[in-house]
Amino acid sequence: MGASTVLPRSLGWSGNKARMEAMPIVSQTQALRTPVVTEEPEAELVARAASGDEAAFETIMRRHNQLLFRTARSILKSDEGAEEAVQDAFLRAWLALDSFRAESKLSTWLVRIVTNEALGRLRRAKVRTVPLEDVMTSPDPKMQLALADEPGNGPEQSAQRAQARSLIEQQIDLLPDEFRTVFMLREVEGLSARDVAEALGIPVGTVRTRAFRARKLLRTSLASKLDVGMSSAFAFDGERCDRIVKNVIEQRRQLARSGA
């Protein structure tokens, strides 16, 4: 972790009880219907959300939902698990907003929280990882077929690109754990090497090395066409975004009502 941002040692609910009891819930019945004000400065949103403004935190969630989902997905390799991890991470972040230090990017702070949440779930589930040798010795012939032709605009070409995207996602899932999250943040989300390093608490040089090796593991035939479908990998649709926002706000309301 970078030195500029201090992440709370514990984000449990008990430590936030007093603050939550005093924290007003603004516009409980209107927040989910309030238009997202995307141009509002981040610092103002954080201040409002920290005081209990649901609409402000909804804007924060919608701005960072895809980034956090892709981060969690790179660790858990499960859409459902990633969605749950993002919801819990956002709730924890909301309760700990007063510990956020503005000298660091909010996105970096949120990535740290969702990374810790996803890793915790992974440890508890004891998910089996795929050995590197399995990736290197089990080439998928469908990958070559799907990527053989130049992309076009017709239905057949669209179907081929969709298949190629699916295969890209499968291959990303097979990357070693330490490469996969770096690759997702650096190559798919487009974060700078410095931002990835700060979010994951590793040197910038390590980020660059892991990203390079991850691309190499996806094989030369795929790497030559990687940029074509990379930005659309692990697509984050509006329905999933709305569901996460709704669930987080509802959980926050329940906690406030119970004083837990």
Key features?
single chain; 260 residues; mainly alpha; Rna Polymerase Sigma Factor, Chain: A; Arc Repressor Mutant, subunit A; 2 domains; 14 helices; 65% helix; globular; disordered N terminus
What this model shows, in words?
This protein is mainly alpha-helical and 260 residues long. It folds into 2 domains: 14-127 and 238-258, Orthogonal Bundle (Rna Polymerase Sigma Factor, Chain: A); 132-232, Orthogonal Bundle (Arc Repressor Mutant, subunit A). It contains 14 helices and no strands. It has helices at 17-22, 42-50, 54-76, 79-95, 106-125, 132-137, 141-146, 155-173, 177-188, 193-200, 204-217, 220-223, 226-229, 238-258. Helix 4 (79-95) crosses helix 14 and helix 5 packs across helix 10 (193-200). The chain starts with 16 loop residues before the first helix and ends with a helix. The model is unreliable at 1-37, 127-138 and 142-151 (pLDDT under 50).
Write the layout of secondary structure elements.
Blueprint: H1 17-22, H2 42-50, H3 54-76, H4 79-95, H5 106-125, H6 132-137, H7 141-146, H8 155-173, H9 177-188, H10 193-200, H11 204-217, H12 220-223, H13 226-229, H14 238-258
